[in-house]
Design a protein that fits this description.
Radius of gyration: 22 Å
Helix content: 40-55%
Shape: globular
Structural class: alpha/beta
Number of helices: 16
Length: 423
């Protein structure tokens, strides 16, 4: 059962309204300034965001922006925002990922402002915000998008005569060549298997032919329809088995966390690491002594490589905010090209805002950015799921054991509860 169905919408709304009546002074201060609260999920960018908030305050001296950094992102944000809804005290502006089930459900429940007619949406490239419309309305402005792929050591690739792979076959050959040359292909975070989420989703998407096709197989098939003998899973095993080759991963990979993997890659202990565009900030902080590059997930054939992601820095406004004018001003301010330039220069993720000068073809994320906002930039498959954490677990379990039957059973156990709507 979805978390929000544990109590009726009417009950939640009623409690919210009752709470609001008790919070009429929210955001007022003794110095006459209005305080708006911003819930941030981009922990690695919080310092830059606080600088931007200060810049906004200089332009709007009667407004103070309280930036609240939310640890552990999704689940914590879900719990905290829901608690605040019930108390009638929702943050004015929330960084919430536009593909998330939370945004879809909360928007339908009336907790977020309809932004469809805001002029600042015209600054968004290729109508990207429309991609996440809910019942034809836009409740979220995506300023940047994340993209997932493979980071690699460009200098070592050049030294060893290695080429970026464009197909599965070339990817397999690359891993074998790296091992044969006495190097370690991958740095893998076995203790933080969420870092492999994009790899596994892309393996399934390239196996089936796309994101929709992958979810038709996984999410919208009949219960218990997933079999280890399926051609899709055979392809999936083939791609996951790249990690299982002898010598393909760093020593003690099972105990390695996200930070460990970033460090291992930045030190040159492994030539590649699968991760999202968000990792570049942490990698750069380690001051690697080589040029970093990225490439998208290879396809079955050339020209079929894919990346996956969604809106990353993406903001919604609370419909119960006492200061909607000021909240809208902050959201509009962030959409200005010169403001997003300051953010982009640190973050480096593909930006959806027109007018931001992005790095050239030699930039670390160029290999992923070239697919951003195209039809080869898939939205996270979990847009149609009700959870993700067990998917991370089953991915890690397969890399550890290689048990194909267990993988099929785990996938069925994960997706079966979601299939009540499958006829």
């Amino acid at each position: 059962m979805k978390w929000y169905k544990k109590m009726s919408l009417a009950a939640i709304t009623g409690l919210s309204l009752l709470g609001l009546s008790a919070c009429s002074s929210q955001g007022e201060s003794t110095d006459g300034k209005v305080t708006i609260e911003y819930f941030n999920q981009k922990g690695e960018m919080v310092d830059t965001l606080r600088e931007i908030a200060k810049d906004f305050e200089k332009e709007n001296p009667n407004v103070h922006v309280k930036v609240v950094n939310v640890p552990n992102a999704g689940e914590v944000l879900k719990t905290r925002v829901l608690a605040r809804v019930l108390a009638g005290d929702v943050p004015d502006v929330v960084n919430i990922y536009p593909q998330s089930i939370e945004l879809q459900e909360w928007a339908k429940a009336g907790y977020f402002e309809d932004l469809s007619n805001k002029d600042y949406l015209k600054r968004v490239k290729n109508h990207y915000a429309d991609k996440y419309a809910i019942d034809g309305k836009i409740y979220n402005i995506p300023y940047t998008a994340n993209a997932y792929g493979i980071y690699y050591n460009k200098d070592k690739f050049k030294e060893l005569g290695l080429k970026v792979p464009e197909t599965w076959e070339e990817f397999e050959e690359l891993v074998d060549k790296i091992i044969a040359k006495g190097e370690t292909p991958f740095a893998i975070a076995g203790a933080d298997t969420w870092t492999l989420n994009g790899y596994h989703q892309l393996a399934l998407a390239t196996s089936t032919g796309g994101g929709k096709e992958a979810n038709d197989y996984l999410r919208f098939s009949k219960p218990n329809a997933i079999k280890s003998s399926d051609s899709v899973l055979k392809d999936d095993f083939r791609l996951l088995d790249l990690f299982r080759k002898k010598g393909a991963m760093q020593t003690n990979w099972q105990g390695a966390g996200y930070t460990d993997v970033v460090g291992a890659f930045a030190r040159g202990d492994a030539l590649m690491t699968p991760n999202g565009s968000w990792a570049i900030t942490a990698i750069n902080a380690q001051d690697p002594k080589f040029n970093v590059g990225t490439f998208p997930f290879p396809g079955k054939q050339k020209g079929q490589s894919l990346t996956i992601g969604a809106g990353d820095l993406a903001w919604s406004i609370s419909s119960s905010s006492k200061h909607k004018k000021e909240a809208n001003a902050f959201v509009e301010y962030m959409s200005r090209p010169e403001v997003m330039q300051k953010y982009y220069d640190v973050d480096g993720s593909p930006t959806a805002i027109e007018g931001v000068k992005e790095a050239g073809s030699d930039a670390p994320l160029a290999g992923l950015a070239e697919l951003a906002f195209t039809d080869r930039h898939l939205v996270w498959l979990a847009q149609d799921w009700t959870s993700e954490s067990d998917f991370y677990t089953l991915t890690g379990n397969y890399i550890t054991t290689g048990n194909k039957e267990d993988m099929a059973k785990a996938l069925n156990a994960f997706f079966n509860p979601m299939k009540a709507d499958v006829e």
